[in-house]
Amino acid sequence: MGGSGMSERTLKRILMALAVALVVYSVLGIVQRVRRGSSGGGAGFARVLQSIDTAAVRAILLRGPTDSLALERAGSGWTVNGYESDPEAVTRFLRALASSDVAGVAANNPANHERLGVAGPDAWTLRLETVDGHPYEIILGKTGTRFGTAFARLPGEDAVVSLVGDLRPSTVRSLDQWRNKNVAAVDTARVATIQVETGSGGYTLNRDASAWTLGAATADSFTVATVLGEISRISATGFPTPSEEPAGERRTLVAIANEGDTLLALEGWVAPETFVVRRAGSGTLYELSQWRGDRMMPPPDSLRPR
User: Fold this and answer.
1) Quick check: 12 pLDDT over 70?
2) How far apart are alpha carbons 123 and 169 in whole angstroms?
């Protein structure tokens, strides 16, 4: 068979090659679009994180599924909803904010926002205000599919990023978890006198050169050591409901130094299931484990030598 005509087999090969080339071109186009979307959304979020100067943040507003929290600088510390905040909780949050990193874009379709928790009932909105009045806002979603990640996005943006770091765990906290639970700390080596009032009577413990005394007698050393151990560092387990009046037997404790300085003055209420205390002159009430009431402010009979 002669002539310059193209064979049927050759034509099929050319058409097949063109089809493969078209498929490859389409796939590459999709990949490039995904990469452009990923780099654009991820880079935009990363730029926002990098532009936040945590040292200049003066207010942090957190809106969660059930509560709103307002943290504000107050001198060298912070307050949360008007209460003294836990300095470690604030430090952890600011450190997490500064060290968070974008792993990539997890989704670009707004239809996925609620499923990932960056919209709807599971979303947490973070609004930061700096000393120069510049606001930043981030929406935090659910925990990510990889350990140590969480979903997040910027308001008005479709791209949802996978955020690496501690930002979600350091944010998703209740008011009580943000509040300062440190009631008091006392250098017990300085304590020379302890005055306690209970429902069954009051007493005074005095330290002499070799022991603690209760009046003219030597006080029970184990009980005194327990009292000193309790007041050396007092940390609450929580806070009673503000509208509740403390219930139980009222007791007081005053620890005085050799020089006459009052190192600690406490008012407490010992009940069958709770022990509530506050510093004298303060309106803040703290909840402690019930058994600590008798350890910190023991009744007179427990101080007598055994």
Assistant:
1) no
2) 13
Q: Shortest CA distance to 122 belongs to which of 114, 110, 111, 130?
A: 114
The contacts of residue 138 (CB under 8 Å, 6+ apart) are 48, 125, 126, 152, 153, 154
d(CA 212, CA 219): 6
The residues, ordered by sequence, that sit 6+ positions from 160 with a Cβ below 8 Å of its Cβ are: 41, 105, 106, 107, 108, 112, 113, 116, 118, 141, 151, 152, 153
What gap in Å lies between CA 255 and CA 189, rounded to an integer?
11
The DSSP string of 186-200 is --GGGEEEEEEEETT
Name the residue with tokens 């007598």.
304
- Rounded distance, CA 86 to CA 77, Å? 9
- In this predicted structure, what is the pLDDT of residue 20? 54
Confidence band (pLDDT; 50, 70, 90) for 24?
very low
Provide the residue type at 183 as one letter: V
Question: How far, in Å, CA of 168 to CA of 249, rounded?
Answer: 42
Element (H, E) at 203: strand 201-207
- Under the banding of pLDDT at 50, 70 and 90, the label for residue 31 is very low
Element holding 236 (H helix, E strand): none
Q: How far is CA 92 from the centre of its chain?
A: 7
State how far Cα 87 lies from the chain centre. Answer: 10
The predicted model scores a pTM of 0.79
Query: Rounded CA gap, 19 and 250, in Å?
Result: 88
Biggest alpha carbon–alpha carbon distance for the chain? 133
